[in-house]
Amino acid sequence: MTTGRAAIDRATIAFIAVALALTAVRIWALFESPLGLYFDEAQYWMWSRSFDWGYFTKPPMVAWVIGLTTTLAGTDAEWAVRLGAPLAHLVAAGAVYALARSMYGAWAGFWAGLGWLLLPGVFFSSSLISTDAVLLPLWTIALYAMWRMVNTRAMSWAIVIGVFLGLGVLAKYAMLYFVVCTAFAAWRIPSVRAALGGGRGWVAGLIAAAIVTPNIVWNVNNGLATARHTASNASLDIGDMFHFDELFEFLFGQAGVLGPIIFFALIWAFWRARQKANRTDEDRFLLAYILPPFIFISIIAFASRANANWAAVAYPAIIVWLTGSLFTTIAGRRWLGGANFVNAAIGVAIAVIITTMPAIANQAKGVRTAQAWEQTAREIALRAATQPGEQPFTAVLVDDRATYFELNYYWRHARRAGAPLPPVRMWLLRGEAHNSAEASDPMRTEEGGRVLVVHLQPGYLPFVADDFSVFRTVEHLTVPLGGGVNREMEISVGEGFAPAPRDAAFEERLRQRSER
Length: 516
What we know:
Low-confidence stretches: 1-7
Strand content: 5-15%
Number of helices: 27
Number of domains: 2
Structural class: alpha/beta
């Protein structure tokens, strides 16, 4: 008994020390990162300036987290906007540790928690704020609470499940997979059905519903904006529904998120679990929280498209399952050690490339889209300033939502200092809003007297020009991003904004442009 308790204590202390050290390094890396905010991050920052129960494309939790971290930090610098990400993964790792420890023992818990922190996907996710980063600790705590309720039948765990299920939905609607997974688990596993009985399932469901209700009300009052956007991400084209390339890209994309050794270990584990005799109660429980998201997203990928991170909710159960499966043998532990070493090497290599090798880093679209927005905003601010003998600009019109959010973020200091910068407005390609920028700040006719127009999408320039009575192109602006990669923009001036009708003729012109 004493030896077992000492081992548990050593494992816990070791995990806490390693987890805190890794998180401290990641927070330090936020200060040193050369990357500006991605436009999604700049969008979330804008949302965080005003508390609400929902926003155009996402539930509110990510904006709340940014509001909290920037308030506590006393600044809205990039590192403060992103601070919630490494802290969220620290919490997720703690929940992974607790679940694996409960299932397989203390040292298995240590390796599972460490394995989570070293996943390439977690390396990347810890460097930027996203809905996935906010969702995953909430999902993992709910998963741990579900396992504890299965083993104890305690009503207190039902309350924990309800709270974190509700909060998870406010982070990302992918949390609703938890309901599907739990139903699948109850169908396949008698102990889960028993745990949900005695009113415990109803208590968890009612608590979650109470937490989510304000977001539902917000959606109803705003035309179901977030719900419609979420559905559109998985929209299907009935005439084009067989995409083996998208399916393979999604499936093999998991190797990039989980790491190559863990990816192949997962294939081995699925093969091993195909026979019922090889499945333990832990296997059955964890598979119930792995298979439904993976199967559903694979179907979406085959029928349309899917990003690798859409299956992120399955990763906590995957790490616990693989760790538990491999930890039972010496050879398995060697594979775990090798997997963690390879994943750590991948994470360090990516960090070194981004910080010291811009020529290589900027070949990746995901990196170059976050580069040099502060310089870009400064160049546009110079052109938006009133020149001697000229009338001031009434607005800055952009035809790309990334430019809209980045300008608003990187002009924040100048605006607070009282600089007379014009308001930033979005050009509406069609007659109604299709993103948050178009919904919050569309170009208005009363602000269209004299407008500085910034084109990141030069193909739309003729359509934008038709929305003004007077229009002239001024210059081509090139902003170096490093490594020989540039951001190319067209700068124009328009007067007398009066948008052309978005009718059948307009749609035909758009169609002809897309076919060129």
